[in-house]
Design goal:
The complex is a heterodimer. Chain A contains 14 helices and 19 strands. Chain A is of the alpha/beta class. In chain A, the strands form four sheets. In chain A, strands 1, 2, 6, 7, 8, 9 and 19 form a seven-stranded mixed beta sheet that branches. In chain A, strands 5-11-12-13-10-16-17 form a seven-stranded antiparallel beta sheet. A three-stranded mixed beta sheet of chain A has the order 3-4-18, with no helix packed on it. In chain A, helix 1 links the parallel strand 1 and strand 2. Chain B is an all-alpha fold. Chain B has one domain. In chain B, helix 2 crosses helix 6. Classes of the chains: A alpha/beta, B mainly alpha.
Chain lengths: 509, 123
Amino acid sequence: MIEREYDVVIVGSGAGGGTVAQELAPLVKDGVRVLLLEQGPRLGDDEFTGREVEMADALYEDGGGFLTADGTMTLAFGRVFGGSTVVYTGTSLVAPERVIRGWNVPDLAHTDVARRSAKFAEQNNVHLFTPDLINDNNRLFVEGCGKAGYRAEQFPLNVKGCKGSSLCNLGCPNAAKMGTHRIQLPGAQSQGVQMVTRAEVLKIGERSLSVVVRAKKEGEKGAESEWAPGEYHVGAKLIVVAGGAVGSPALLLRSGFGTRLPALGAGFTCHPAHILVAEHERPITNDVGHPKSYYVDRAAEEGYVLETCMYFPFTTAKNLTGFGPAHSALMRAFPRLQMILVLACDKAVPHNRVTVDRDGKAVVRYRFTPDTVEAMVRATRASARIFFAAGALRVHAPSADPPLIERRDAARLDELIAARHFLAGKVSVSAAHLMGGCAMGQPGDTAASVTDAWGRVHGLPWLRVADASLFPDSLEINPYLTIMALADRVAERIRSEARDLLGAGAGAA
Amino acid sequence: MFRALAEAFVPESAALDEGGWAEAEAIVERFLATRPAAVRRQLRLLIRLLDLLPLLRYGRRFRSLDATRRLRVLEAAQNAPMLLLRRGIWGLRTLAFMAYYERPEAAAEIGYRATARGWEARR
């Protein structure tokens, strides 16, 4: 066992960990030793090939095939330097006021979240695309929304020099996406924050971590770890856990904190999503241009959000319901396909939670509530209306049986798309907005929460959480700016307490 | 048996030559190598079960059925009341789709043209 000693150790390098690293980096010049550990590898710019399975293997947990315990939903989250900010589409929205108010976390105001979100939006070059960069897939969505009576809004995006590869979810091959691996992490590293990749934290003890650094396997993408392979015992005066809504609760649970923190792992939400596909008469530009430029927000009224999207052949095939000749015919219409992602705004319920198995591996227990299924059905009907209004010949709807709905049946959508056809295990459901598990709440209220509004774990001043696991309930919109805003709060509080937490020399910022 | 299943899930795979099958199967093998041993065991068991299941209705094993009957067996299984069977079919079809559509030739066949050059390659 190799011994190492630091003042602050950050676990995870995504939107949460990357932000904390950046915000704590100024402490380094005061002599504070800050270390960031990332489980995944650090990829070189030339390693982003856009090949689907190859990139999914390199960038995602379980190669993008992480399943919930009953196998009915796939959860997609990054396992790479930069975390999920490497693989999202860069959509950058500020949390809705009603959601933050509804969370009812003392000392957490929407104005504060919005102010900090604006700071990161500016830092990450968030802006709206000009019309010449919008492809037909997105244009048809806007057109269909207009005709069907839905208000389409444009996504602000955090890109610089986007060439429109459409490959965002496989990691941008043009280094255009301003994830933490492009902005916050290099900035922190240049100020002296030490970063170690391929470093998995097995357990957290009293002001210490058990870490295993793995060697790069033959043929694997990414650089070798900065540390020699082996087992490490890392001492730390302060530990910030930012391993995401699956990773953080799982790490704390396998470290034995579940007894003193009964809410640990509870309240997991994820915006369960379907990919819907419609076939047009003529080819459209769909596999070129940014894939996710517009959305419809019906969260407050109907419990769903619709987003434009465009996926790759295997992902598309997997997400269509069924197989055989009908499935193949739709795949062969690829150049004529329009796609919409429907997301249900699920609510935190007791039975949906993160647990760990005997080996300490994360297990997500999730059952679709009737409300979530109904929201997905409403969203699917709305999408079908938008598709047909945009001129589609036929629509593939997972919650219909058979799933293919022809234009002549467009007036029967309410009848054809129904909850009774949502057969878990048959229909493909995936989720990439993973939230909750270490919920913020009233200070000291261990029955209902894990941390206070500043990510301080109840009763453990040396342990903080700074990622989407802090969300006490679904955010009902794309989460990354909100994660950064909350992580910024966590870091600010650490800086203000630095002298007490880290000892002499650590100047309060 | 995997080929018989793959041909039912993706009818075009019946036209693959030996080289094409080798490529497709290598994609699946690489993926399965990263899965826990228990998952691989369950898949083998499911494939065996699916091969034998049609004996009850058609008196023949899955691999000996024609394309229409193969499809019927799989459709019945994907609509089965038992979640375990439904998700098993979902998993197998996922592997078949991965095997077929991850090949660069398949992307070309269906007209998928995304490249890193993006708009520059189209305008």
